[in-house]
């Protein structure tokens, strides 16, 4: 069976993006527990506090899922799954930001979503237990 190979440069780029995204999601997710719900609900779209805590939990776990499986070599197939889950969150974040009428601000979650999609695509071969 022929296994896919990842170039050294692409692997380095993926790890760099994974680390940066993990730091971003760990910070963003933890802030959803620290900030008051009233502060997070200042926009036109309002959500209950439990929803923010749920999204914060997903972001923290997703951020850990981008890094830990690859570092430990245990269940590396969880990395692309975590990336797809975070991509779903970024699609929602982009949509909500657009609904708030902040078109230019919506570029941030969109770009982060593209980066997460790159990680999901680049690490997809880990799902097959390869390398």
Explain the overall architecture.
With 131 residues, the chain is mainly α. It has one domain. Helices cover 71% and strands 0% of the residues. The chain contains five helices and no strands. Helix 3 packs antiparallel against helix 4 and helix 4 runs antiparallel to helix 5. The longest helix is centred in the N-terminal third of the chain and has 27 residues. It is elongated.
Brief descriptors of the model:
0% strand, single chain, mainly alpha, 131 residues
In percent terms, what proportion of residues is strand? under 5%
Order of helices and strands: HHHHH
What integer value in Å does the Rg equal?
16 Å
Unreliable residue runs = none
Helix/strand structural class: mainly alpha
Tell me the count of domains: 1
Mean pLDDT across every amino acid position: 90
Amino- and carboxy-terminal Cα gap: 13 Å
Helix content: over 70%
Q: What's the number of helices?
A: 5
Shape: elongated
Note the main sheet.
none
Number of strands: 0
């Amino acid at each position: 069976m022929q296994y896919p190979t990842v170039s050294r440069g692409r692997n380095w780029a993926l790890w760099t993006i994974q680390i940066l995204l993990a730091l971003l999601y760990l910070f963003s997710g933890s802030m959803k527990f620290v900030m008051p719900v009233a502060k997070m609900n200042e926009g036109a779209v309002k959500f209950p506090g439990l929803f923010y805590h749920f999204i914060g939990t997903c972001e923290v776990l997703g951020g850990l899922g981008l890094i830990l499986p690859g570092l430990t070599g245990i269940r590396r197939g969880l990395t692309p799954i975590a990336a797809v889950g975070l991509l779903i969150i970024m699609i929602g974040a982009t949509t909500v930001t657009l609904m708030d009428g902040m078109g230019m601000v919506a570029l941030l979650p969109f770009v982060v979503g593209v980066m997460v999609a790159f990680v999901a695509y680049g690490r997809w071969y880990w799902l097959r237990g390869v390398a």
